[in-house]
Write a structure and sequence with these properties.
Elements (H helix, E strand, L loop, with lengths): L2 H16 L22 H8 L24 H14 L3 H7 L9 E8 L14 E8 L8 E7 L13 H5 L8 H11 L10 H15 L4 E7 L5 H19 L4 E5 H12 L4 H12 L1
Parallel strand pairs: 3-4, 4-5
Antiparallel strand pairs: 1-2, 2-3
Helix pairs in contact: 9-10
Length: 285
C-alpha cells in the first residue's frame, strides 16, 4: 500500500469509528459530517468564490463537492483553521510556527492573487489560489502570511512545469534568478520534482510578490507527513525547493501537520479540548 492509500485508509477508519457514512469513493453525503464545525456564511462565500470546486458546481453542473472527500486537504485546512479564526486564536498558531505575532487585519480562506497586473488576464487568466491568507496592517513590512495546505496530494506524481508564458515574461523574475532557473529546468523535463508541486509553489511566490512586494509576505507550506519512500522523497524535494527559494530571498517556510497539531495541543490546552481531541483523533491517531 502506497502513502496515499494509507492516508485514505486512515480517514476511512476514522469515519467508521465516528459512525459517518461515506460512498465507495470515500465522499460523505453531507458536508457537515466532514468538518469539526459547519461552514458559516463568510467561509462558504470564500470557498464558493474560488475556482477549485471545493463546494462543487462551479466548473461543471452536478460536480461533486471536493470538500466532501474524507481525504480532502481543504477539509483538513478548514478543520484546523476555522476554529482558530472564529475564536481569535490565530496569534497562537503564528507563534507556535515561529511567525510574527501582532494585530491581524484580515483572514480569509481561498485567497486569490494575480500573477501580474500588467499582463492579466490575457496571459495569466487564472490567479494563484492560497488556502489561507492572514494579513497584517499595511504599515508593517511583513503584510501577509499565506498558507498552502496539502494532505494526500504530495503522494501523487506532480511532474508538471509552469506554462511557457511564465518564462516569457522577464519582469516576473526580477530578483528570482534561482527560481527561474528551476522553472526552466522543469520545463525541459528536468529538476527531479515528483512529489512536491514545485510549479504551484513558484506560481504562489510570483503572485505574492506582485501583491505584497519582494519581502512583504511569507509562504508557509503546511503538509501531512507519512512513512515510506514517497514521503522521504517529498521531504527531500521540499528541502531542496526551500533552499532554492531562500537563495532568492523568498520568505518560504515548511511545516508538517504532525508538528503543528501537537504544538497547538500544548499551547491551547483543556479550554479547547473538543477541538483538539477532534484533530488528534482524526489526523494523528
Amino acid at each position: 500500500m502506497n502513502a496515499q492509500s494509507r492516508l485514505r485508509d486512515k480517514q476511512r477508519k476514522w469515519a467508521d469509528r465516528a459512525g459517518i457514512h461515506y460512498d465507495e469513493a470515500r465522499y460523505v453525503s453531507c458536508l457537515k459530517d466532514n468538518l469539526f464545525e459547519p461552514l458559516n456564511d463568510e467561509m462558504r462565500s470564500e470557498f464558493e468564490g474560488a475556482d477549485g470546486g471545493e463546494l462543487g458546481g462551479k466548473r461543471k453542473e452536478g460536480e461533486r463537492k471536493k470538500m466532501c472527500a474524507l481525504h480532502s486537504s481543504s477539509a483538513l485546512c478548514c478543520n484546523v483553521f476555522s476554529y482558530l479564526r472564529k475564536n481569535d486564536l490565530l496569534g497562537d498558531f503564528l507563534d507556535v510556527c515561529g511567525l510574527p505575532v501582532g494585530r491581524i487585519a484580515s483572514v480569509r480562506f481561498e485567497g486569490r492573487f494575480r500573477i501580474t497586473d500588467k499582463h492579466q488576464p490575457a496571459r495569466f487568466p487564472r490567479p494563484a489560489n492560497l488556502d489561507l491568507v492572514i494579513e497584517y496592517p499595511q504599515d508593517r513590512d511583513l503584510r501577509a502570511v499565506a498558507v498552502e495546505s496539502k494532505f494526500t496530494e504530495p503522494y501523487e506524481a506532480h511532474a508538471r512545469p509552469l506554462r511557457p508564458a511564465y518564462l516569457d515574461v522577464a519582469e516576473l523574475w526580477q530578483g528570482l534568478g534561482q527560481c527561474r532557473t528551476l522553472a526552466a529546468e522543469m520545463a525541459r523535463g528536468g529538476a527531479g520534482f515528483v512529489h512536491l508541486d514545485a510549479a504551484q509553489l513558484i506560481k504562489h511566490i510570483l503572485a505574492l510578490r506582485n501583491n505584497y512586494g519582494p519581502r512583504g509576505s511569507i509562504l508557509l507550506y503546511l503538509w501531512y507527513d507519512e512513512c515510506g519512500d514517497e514521503a522521504q522523497l517529498h521531504r527531500e524535494e521540499t528541502d531542496r525547493f526551500a533552499a532554492t527559494a531562500t537563495a532568492d530571498g523568498v520568505r518560504f517556510m515548511s511545516m508538517t501537520y504532525q508538528h503543528l497539531v501537537p504544538a497547538l495541543v500544548q499551547r491551547l490546552g483543556a479550554a479547547h479540548k473538543a477541538y483538539l481531541d477532534y484533530l488528534v483523533g482524526r489526523y494523528l491517531a
